[in-house]
Amino acid sequence: MASHRSVIGAALAASFFLALSATTASAAALTCLTGTSPVVASDAGDVADARAAIAAACPCSFYDGSASGRKHGDYVRCAKGIIDARADEDDLRTQCKGTVKKFYSISTCGYTAAQNKTSCVKTTGSGKVSCAIKPALLCLTTPAASQVACPSHAHCIDAADTNATLVIGDGDSGSCAPPPSTPTPTPVPTPTPTPAPSAGFQAVLSHAVDPSDLKSSFELPDPKVSSTTTFNSSQMDISGVAGVTVSASYAVNGDLTLINKSWWGGIRNATVSDTATRGIDIRNFMNADVTLGAGDDDVVVTGAKRGTIATNDGDDTITISGNSNNTENNLMTVRAGAGDDVVTFNAGNLSRAMIDGGDGADQLTVSGKAAATIIGGAGNDRLVDNSTGLVTLTGGTGNDVFEIKAGAIATITDFALGQDKLHLVGVAPAAVNATVSGGSTIVTLGGGATVTLLGVSLTEAQIDPFYS
């Protein structure tokens, strides 16, 4: 009988081992970029698209380590937000999220010049190639391994990946990859592409101080998918615009990328509207106005001083990297409509934003040094203040989380005891103190940072903040 049980036990163990081996093999086949599954074939293109979106929304040059909101951790969080959003939209496989996030965590972005960080490519005696970020003075060859500093590359993946596989390892030379260069524009395909399927689409360029003044303006021709067209000043014929070129690129699904390829301010305004769902990417215009219909829209705006982004209902992703040359006429307004929206606004101290997430479980973030008003609306929202500017947050109805970073000057208008949560990031609990003044609670965070809870008189124990 004992022998019979032994045979059964051995059989069960063998079955478990085979099942575990099959599961492991299946997971390996799906590994980002290197797996054997057919779905891996799209990884390189999807990763490249994600990196382009991150470069636009999280420019490395902004994260210079000079202040809160511009540190390396802030840069990585900005990149992570784009990566997670693209994965949620199925524009990036889940298996690639960790791979791409590592590209940005192993980078020099967010360190000060005084820290003298560099991408350091290492080759061991056995020929294994790796890369790390370290002070340039420590990137030295030793008897065990050769090391070479690659200051032209902010990201290790770009420094060490000499065979352009997006993987550091076999086939890489151990030397620095060539520095970035401006790619040669791809010629417009000869076949006439099919027009994008949307009768309600309109894109207009203008240069008036008032963007609604379209007396002198240029309307883009009907969109053609999988095409790029560049317009010069003569073609646009807009009063006050000279020596300027603008490119309009349409993806196969009709998404538009609109770029002022000349200096900032050379042409002021880009106005895009569509009744359908569409991805919009606008770069280097002073004013950006986008109005889209209901649906899950994806809007990226880079370099705008002002404008209005209105996406209507749907689970929208809106990413704005602002720019301003003064404190006048510098408001960027976002109205995301109902849905579970993700809105990120990152800008310097001359910029302002008004972000209204509408109904739904929204995540609304402002970072850098910008001043802002953030409104969550109905739903369980997460309102994030990573800025050192003056920021006012209103959660609306629902169980909201107010995430406040060290250095913030924040005002929460409707903190509800027992319902809302206060999340303090980078703040030492010992530095936190709550006092009541004029019927409101002022929570000091140290270093001059404060969170004011309007209209409520609470102790620190009642507020019960949590930390990370």
First and last CA, distance = 58 Å
Strand neighbour order, sheet with most strands: 5-4-9-11-13-15-17-19-21-23-27-26-25
Contiguous uncertain segments of 5+ residues: 16-20, 190-197
- Computed Rg: 26 Å
Mean pLDDT figure: 89
Shape: globular
Give the amount of beta strand, in percent: 25-35%
Number of beta-strand segments: 28
Structural class: alpha/beta
What about the largest sheet?
A: 13 strands, mixed
Number of helices: 7
Helix content: 10-25%
Would you mind describing this structure in some detail?
By secondary structure, the chain is an alpha/beta fold. Helix content is 18%, strand content 32%. It contains seven helices and 28 strands. It has helices at residues 2-29, 43-57, 72-88, 94-105, 156-160, 233-236, 460-463; strands at residues 117-124, 129-135, 145-149, 202-206, 217-219, 227-232, 245-250, 256-260, 269-274, 279-283, 287-292, 298-304, 306-310, 317-322, 331-335, 342-347, 352-356, 363-368, 371-375, 382-387, 390-394, 401-405, 409-412, 421-425, 433-437, 440-446, 449-453, 466-467. The strands form three sheets. The protein has a 13-stranded mixed β-sheet, with no helix packed on it. A twelve-stranded mixed β-sheet has the order 6-7-8-10-12-14-16-18-20-22-24-28. A hairpin with a 4-residue loop joins strand 1 (117-124) and strand 2. Residues 16-20 and 190-197 have low confidence and may be disordered.
